[in-house]
Amino acid sequence: MNDFEFEIVPVDDITEIKQYGHPKYKLVFILDDVIGLFGVEYDKITNLERYKESIINALGERSKILFTCRKALYNEAANLKSFVLDKKYLADLEDNNNQLNAEDRKHILNNHCKPHDISLKPDELLNVSSTVGCMMYPLLCKLFCSKSEYQSLGKDFFENPYVCIRNQMDYLQVHKKIQYASLIICMLYKNEITVTMMARKDPRFMEIREKVFENCRVSGRNSEIKSSLDHMINTFTILTDKGYSLIHDSVYEVLAFHYGNQHQEDMLEYMSSSFVAKKFSTSDTSEYPGDLHIKIHGEHYSAYAKRLVRDLKDLELYDVFMNKKLKIKCICSAFIEELKKNVINWVISYGHSHILQFLFDQVTKHGESIWRVLDWEVEEGSESCYINNLTEQLQV
């Protein structure tokens, strides 16, 4: 793009395009994870449509917008109507015509090595793995050049990137605890720590900090967190306009897997509804290094169900009702138990006194339990029985 005199402008929000766009300048705006990270976030699509006209007017004919999203999310949202999802503007980076070839990989790796005076043998440049995901390749080149131990691994680093990153997290957790804890805090705080929140001791930030410090068995001041994040810039963190963020989605996922399988409660408390819906599983983790889900153990079924009810209250309806874990009997049963505890509270909280009166009249009139009146008593049996009753109640 620079060869064609375009200025590249990464943005974090669609409104920034409206703010910085100008018809006279040749700009390319890049907005990553445009419709969500782990699941489709429908409010983002709504927001994009809301600003569509004003953005196009601000860009004029000289500037362009490059939206990125994961292919799985695009497929999930493919039937939705939005200019962002228009197939005529789509470039699938996994398509054979768009994938990185050997020459592309050689060029990218060379560009990262040169500033660090790292020399590689010609055969190493040419044969760097073609199997590694093209989405991760530029990040891997950056990480490869950041540490001598990565360089000593040579092609193995590129062939097994998740293993290398997970091993690095193992090392940080034991030998660099404040750095590890700082990364976890960043992950739990929606992948961004700002200088302001550290300086002002933001209550939610401090709450997360204390939990993570306790779990990681480390202590420290906010200034030490900042120093740790600074130390890891271009390895695991990057600078943003307001503070720090993790360098790449893959680092975010490895961190979530690494910490989350040890401390599920924190993940259920602080991670997004889409993460909870997509990244938790009741099955064992496979031996494939890229399998980065968090296994829900039996003692956490209730906590998982409580989180689903919380998301339901927050109107994250898609993430709750399209959650495939609700098809699993143990999770569905725990979810129904949590709904039992909340149904009367919801009726009262939302001021539906006439509904509450009706429920008590039914109990008095028929001499039955409140659960039978609400049709919550479900016969033991098939999973579909649970799901059908749940669906009927939700429709009511």
TrEMBL record:
Source organism, top-level taxon: Eukaryota
Name of the coding gene: LOC111113908
Domain Novel STAND NTPase: 5-114
Lineage start: Eukaryota, Metazoa, Spiralia, Lophotrochozoa, Mollusca
Source organism of the structure: Crassostrea virginica (Eastern oyster)
Protein name: Uncharacterized protein LOC111113908
